[in-house]
């Protein structure tokens, strides 16, 4: 909830509102001298799915990079669990439970499923724990544990990417273009898994160019255009605005 809205909340109910687990306030960021995010306000509540929508180049990936610590705000604040974490590294943010699956899935194509999980193991989870999470949630991965990740289908690769993230017991999951290169049926299944994660308490921020893929499971949506959030609201309302005004119906 932004400050404008917060001022409208009566004092007697304000204390029962959940604290956002991740929050961007007036965040500006860019690449070298070029600013591409011009004052982003977003709030992500625990156990919810926030869909970040918009056309190519709008700033979705850059926003996720700010959230994961890969891009440092030049102004404004990134907060995790209420603490300002501007300039904290991606590794440190991962250590406190902010986990990111980048566009392209971030898996190692020439390593097996098991080796990919092994690389994700660390202080937060052992290989055995990661394998248990992965193979219980996605039995197909168990069958393919010795297969090279690059030879699996796109959907299976996405399962592996999700498993690597989940094994670290994240509080926040950042997903970029989960649907990329996947058949609609597989996309729907992947998003069912994402909805399940949110039901288990994980806060999920999903950047998606294809709104229809994510909106059925989103609790809230934000439309980002030219580096600015132009609308935040119920998924159906944001979808209407997206198609009517920006994608020509
Ligand atoms: N590494 C970079 N260096 C310079 N400019 C960049 C870089 N990455 C992105 N940009 C620019 O920042 C702007 C926002 O890009 P971003 O990738 O965040 O948008 P997006 O909404 O995720 O688009 P897409 O869906 O095409 O990935 C674009 O104008 C893009 O050209």
From TrEMBL:
GO MF term (any one): ATP binding
UniProt-listed InterPro entries: AAA+_ATPase, ABC_transporter-like_ATP-bd, ABC_transporter-like_CS, BCAA_Transport_ATP-bd_LivF, P-loop_NTPase
Pfam families in the cross-refs: ABC_tran
Keyword Cell membrane among UniProt keywords: no
Residue span, ABC transporter domain: 22-247
Keyword set, alphabetical order: Amino-acid transport, ATP-binding, Nucleotide-binding, Transport
CDD domains for this protein: ABC_TM1139_LivF_branched
Family statement: Belongs to the ABC transporter superfamily.
Name listed for the protein in its UniProt record: ABC transporter ATP-binding protein
Gene source species: Jatrophihabitans cynanchi
Lineage: Bacteria, Bacillati, Actinomycetota, Actinomycetes, Jatrophihabitantales
């Amino acid at each position: 909830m932004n400050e404008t809205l917060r001022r409208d909340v009566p004092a007697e109910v304000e204390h029962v509102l959940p604290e956002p687990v991740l929050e961007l306030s007036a965040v500006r960021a860019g690449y070298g001298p070029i600013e591409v995010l011009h004052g982003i306000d977003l709030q992500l509540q625990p156990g919810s799915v926030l869909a970040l929508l918009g056309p190519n180049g709008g700033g979705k990936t850059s926003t996720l990079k700010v959230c994961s610590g890969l891009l440092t705000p030049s102004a404004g604040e990134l907060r995790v669990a209420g603490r300002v974490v501007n300039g904290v590294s991606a590794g440190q943010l991962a250590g406190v439970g902010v986990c990111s699956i980048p566009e392209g899935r971030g898996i190692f194509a020439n390593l097996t499923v098991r080796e990919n999980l092994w690389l994700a193991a660390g202080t937060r989870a052992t290989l055995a724990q990661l394998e248990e999470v992965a193979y219980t949630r996605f039995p197909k991965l168990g069958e393919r544990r010795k297969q090279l990740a690059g030879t699996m289908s796109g959907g299976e690769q996405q399962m592996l990417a999700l498993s690597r993230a989940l094994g670290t017991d994240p509080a926040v999951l950042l997903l970029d273009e989960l649907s990329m290169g996947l058949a609609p049926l597989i996309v729907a299944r992947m998003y069912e898994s994402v909805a399940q994660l949110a039901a288990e308490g994980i806060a999920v921020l999903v950047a998606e160019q294809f709104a229809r893929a994510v909106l059925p499971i989103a609790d809230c949506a934000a439309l980002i255009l030219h580096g600015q959030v132009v609308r935040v609201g119920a998924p159906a309302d944001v979808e209407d605005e997206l198609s009517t005004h920006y994608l020509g119906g």
